[in-house]
UniProtKB/TrEMBL annotation:
Membrane topology type: Multi-pass membrane protein
Gene Ontology MF annotations: transmembrane transporter activity
The protein, known as: MFS transporter, DHA2 family, multidrug resistance protein
GO cellular component: plasma membrane
SUPFAM superfamilies: MFS general substrate transporter
Taxonomic lineage: Bacteria, Bacillati, Actinomycetota, Actinomycetes, Propionibacteriales
Membrane spanning residue stretches: 20-41, 61-78, 85-104, 110-131, 143-164, 170-193, 205-224, 230-251, 272-294, 306-325, 337-357, 363-388, 409-428, 478-500
Highest taxon listed in the record's lineage: Bacteria
Keywords linked to the UniProt accession: Cell membrane, Membrane, Transmembrane, Transmembrane helix, Transport
Organism per entry: Actinopolymorpha singaporensis
Cell membrane in keyword set: yes
Subcellular location: Cell membrane
Length: 527
């Protein structure tokens, strides 16, 4: 492995920028699909008579399959062509969306959601790796990635509004049909606007590695989600351990293959490995914090789900603006400054959340959360650009798959770990008044939602006392968790600042980087 030049690549033309709009379509759709389903769940559960367990599988199977197949699909795109894989995935997503919309049972919907997850796993790494192919200039690639990330945030913002309109006027299946016109438009425009690119010399996909990748990621994500939902249990913990063990076998197999599913040589690039870990750490903190703040808005502040979603719109808008400004910041300042500064701002925002919880009111808490979100958006956009830029074009799909997988794992781990910290504090602090039946008291001690349900069946004085104690305990847990998150982000700020200190700003990208940052040599040509 030799050092790669950082001289600017060719500038993108109008065709590439128009193609970026096509690549934004599946990104926007995936975030819309995710946010709309939360609103549709009560309606589809009633229509299909889904049990509580089936509802969880309807929600979770999609993310399980995406997480499990991201690395495989990223590498598959490198082998068969990224545009081809994107169109195959788009077709599969449209067909699975129709099947999901017209599901006649909960089991059928779970199966179609699994198909949607596999199809979705083809879309994200394909779009991101195509951006890396189309935008070789570092600054332009940063702008394109910022647009790509902003589309995801826009989908999360307008999702509750679109979902509300659909569910008010149509049946629950209409939420899934959103994907059909978007995918048709993608399939119609992609051949004319998107280039094809594949690694011609690469061999066949190693099916044993695919199986090991699934055996690594699926048990880990499942175990973390179960620990987050139900607290500490031996089964989910063993699933995580088993997944990590399979991960060891997976890595060992990759080192022995001539054409590995995941080229571990990518991790020799300090830029790649640091950016991957940086985004993983950010996902852990922000996912766990977002979950707790969502519960706070509804169960402590008393907002309806729709009003809670509307309350977070300014936060999403602020994140989008921060992402769009990142390329300009990276053009003026070194990556070390942008990453460390962004994480420091995010840590400050979480400290504001910790101080505001239960003390200064809802508005201050949302301001702190917005500050944290603005701070995290800049290093996240920068990190994705560094990950894609660190890999040669032949490995861009695999690098994109790793980037997305680290985010999925970070979200699952953040919900599990930070949620567990908050739950532990809640359980230690909540006080159940005398006179509450034993079973109901246990449910109230387990979680704030359990306390709310329990209070609904109690006389007014007991209900008020229980809810007051439970909300105070939950608010305290949120504050503790925000402080922990601030500490983690401060550590990430220091590490990223040190590890990126040798990288130049986008505006000085013609200067040679330190020889310490070893990166792969590009050996492929566009198809």
């Amino acid at each position: 492995m030799t050092s790669q030049s950082t001289a600017p690549g060719p500038r993108a033309s109008r065709r590439e920028w128009t193609g970026l709009a096509v690549l934004a379509l599946p990104t926007l759709l995936l975030s819309l699909d995710m946010s709309v389903l939360y609103l549709a769940l009560p309606h589809l559960s009633e229509g299909l008579d889904a049990s509580a367990t089936q509802q969880l599988w309807i929600m979770d199977i999609y993310s399980f399959m995406i997480a499990g197949f991201l690395v495989t699909m990223g590498t598959l795109g490198d082998r068969i062509g990224r545009r081809r894989l994107l169109m195959i995935g788009g077709t599969a997503f449209a067909v699975a969306s129709v099947l999901a919309a017209y599901s006649t049972s909960a089991e059928m919907l779970i199966a179609t959601r699994a198909l949607l997850g596999v199809a979705g796993a083809t879309l994200m790494p394909s779009t991101l790796s195509l951006i890396g192919t189309m935008f070789r200039d570092q600054h332009q690639r940063g702008v394109a990635i910022a647009v790509w990330m902003t589309c995801f945030m826009v989908g999360m913002t307008v999702g509750p509004l679109v979902g509300g309109v659909l569910l008010q006027n149509f049946w629950w299946g209409s939420a899934f049909l959103l994907g059909v016109p978007v995918m048709v438009l993608l399939l119609a425009m992609a051949p004319a606007l998107l280039p094809e690119f594949r690694d011609e010399p690469a061999g066949r996909i190693d099916l044993a590695s695919v199986a090991l990748a699934l055996a690594t990621v699926l048990p880990v994500v499942y175990g973390l989600k179960e620990l987050a939902h139900g607290g500490w249990h031996a089964g989910p913990a063993l699933a995580v351990v088993a997944g990590l063990a399979f991960g060891v076998f997976f890595c060992r197999r990759q080192t022995r293959l001539d054409d590995p599913l995941l080229d571990l040589e990518l991790f020799r690039s300090r830029r790649f490995s640091t950016a991957l870990c940086m985004n993983f750490g950010g996902a852990i903190v922000m996912a766990g914090t977002f979950l707790l703040i969502s519960q706070y808005l509804q169960l402590v502040a008393g907002l309806s789900p729709l009003r809670a979603g509307l309350a977070t719109i300014p936060v999403n808008v602020a994140m989008a603006i921060s992402s769009m400004l990142t390329p300009q910041l990276a053009r003026r300042f070194r990556p070390a400054v942008v990453s460390a500064g962004g994480f420091a701002i995010a840590a400050l925002g979480l400290l504001v959340v910790a101080l505001a919880a239960g003390r200064y009111g809802l508005v201050t808490l949302l301001v702190g959360f917005a500050l944290a979100s603005v701070g995290i958006a800049a290093p996240s956009a920068l990190g994705v650009n560094l990950i894609v830029g660190a890999a040669p074009p032949t490995k861009a799909g695999a690098a994109s798959g790793m980037s997305e997988t680290s985010g999925e794992l970070g979200v699952a781990l953040g919900v599990a770990t930070l949620g567990s910290i908050a739950a532990a504090f809640y359980g230690a602090q909540v006080s159940v008044p005398a006179g509450v039946p034993a079973v109901a008291a246990d449910a109230a001690r387990e979680s704030l939602p359990g306390a709310v349900v329990t209070a609904g069946g109690l006389p007014e004085p007991l209900a008020a006392a229980l809810l007051g104690s439970a909300r105070d305990a939950f608010t305290g847990g949120l504050a503790i968790t925000a402080v922990v998150g601030a500490v983690v982000l401060t550590a990430v700020a220091v590490v990223s600042g040190v590890m990126f200190r040798h990288l130049r700003s986008y505006g000085d990208e013609t200067a040679a980087e330190s020889a310490e940052d070893t990166e792969p040599v590009d050996t492929a040509t566009p198809a």
